[in-house]
Amino acid sequence: MHIKLLMKRLIIITISLIICTKPLLNAQSILSIEDCRRMALEHNRSLMISQEKVKAAIETKKAVFTQFLPNFSANGTYTYNEKNISLLSEDAMLPIGTKMADGSFGFRADQIANQWVKISEGIYAPIGSDGVPFDPKVNPEKIIWKDYALLPKESMEFDSKNIYAGNLGFVQPIYLGGKIRELYKIAKSTERVAVLQNENSTDELIINVDEAYWRVVSLENKNKLAKEYYNLTAKLEKDIEILIEEGVATKADLLKVVVKKNEAEMMVVKAENGLKLSKMALCQLCGIDINSNIILSESDLGIIEDSSYQDRPIESVVANRFEIKTLNEADKIVNSTYKIAQSRFMPNVLLSGNYLISNPNIFNGYRNTFSGMYTIGLVVNIPIFHFGDKIHVLKAAESEKKITELQIEEAKEKIELQINQSKFRIEEARKQFKMAEKSVDQAIENLKYANEAFDAGIASSTELMTAQTSWLSANSEKIDSKIELKICELYLKKALGESLLKSIK
User: Fold this and answer.
1) How distant is the alpha carbon of residue 62 from its chain centre?
2) pTM (2 decimals)?
3) CATH architecture assignment, domain 29-73+176-504
């Protein structure tokens, strides 16, 4: 019984938790434009890719820097040979000499078989096979040895079946025509380009998020406006029905109002569908579930204050643009590439060193012991002739330099045009917004008088519907002009080279 009672209590508690939690799961998230920007920056995959490119460029720069340093390498080998090394193919007979009194190696007269003759007082010389006396010190090959020593083949055989060898070496570049220095400059510029591209991707993402955000705000306001317009047509429909009962209005008047009411209802449906889709698009950019029920803190546009921008010299603005900064780094890369092409005509100087150890010891009679030796040297490579290859590469690098210079000039012209277009566009947006405000005030006043005239029986339902339509159009135009002004201000900042990332820090 106690177990059953306990189970019932657990079930009740579980159901209660589910019921209490459900409203939290369906709770609406209130997001500001700053919140949307931060979430987008955290979850955007394209931005993640550009950040990884920055990391890759940094590591590449570090890798290039290591080329200034010596390169060490080590290797070891083991070899098994089927046979030993032998310096003789068969036993050898060596003529016998004598160690003389003065310590030198020579021979006595009794050790040779040649006949000796007197060639001068006290001086004898052996006679060769040709019967001519010769000096044995000068022509020892003519000596016919009387005695020989046996040199067995086995005495000149070395144990070389198991050979161990190891080598430790280094190469230090001394002069490569400036190639490594220019490669390092290229790596630094590549890193800078990656950073600039990441910053630009960030700004582009912020612009996309802001546009999506204000699109939602615009549609929320238009949705409210469409519902207000629908309420106006519904009220007019009821008024016409009363007038028909009083015999003042006709069914034709009612039909006109019903048509407008149906149009207003469809307008509400379109506004609601557009609002849902725009919220989905914003959620997708922010990296959250597209079906999230979000509420924007800036749904009420409120009063738009006149914003001003600091008019700076066009040269400073152009120099601060992403395109120019990127092209300047590209120009540096091209210049370094040109210098690398020039370096191919220069000699290369390298310092190298090695330490070799082996067993058998090849440096001391092939003894079965480990022993080694070191070497150090200077390597100089001077290019002489390569069928014009280097010249063609150099000319290609010169053309790349000219291309980059022309691209920079073209980009400056386009940027200047873009800045002026952005300035003109924002001025037009401000004027449009002020005109829209006046039109709304006039439309509200016109609608007020039309309602009063209709109630007094002076104006027809058609005239009232015209006033309502004008009121709807004026308010819709005001909403569009507000959003357009905000977006224009955003694009102007981008055109002036201002980092949009600073606005969320």
Assistant:
1) 15
2) 0.71
3) Up-down Bundle (1.20)
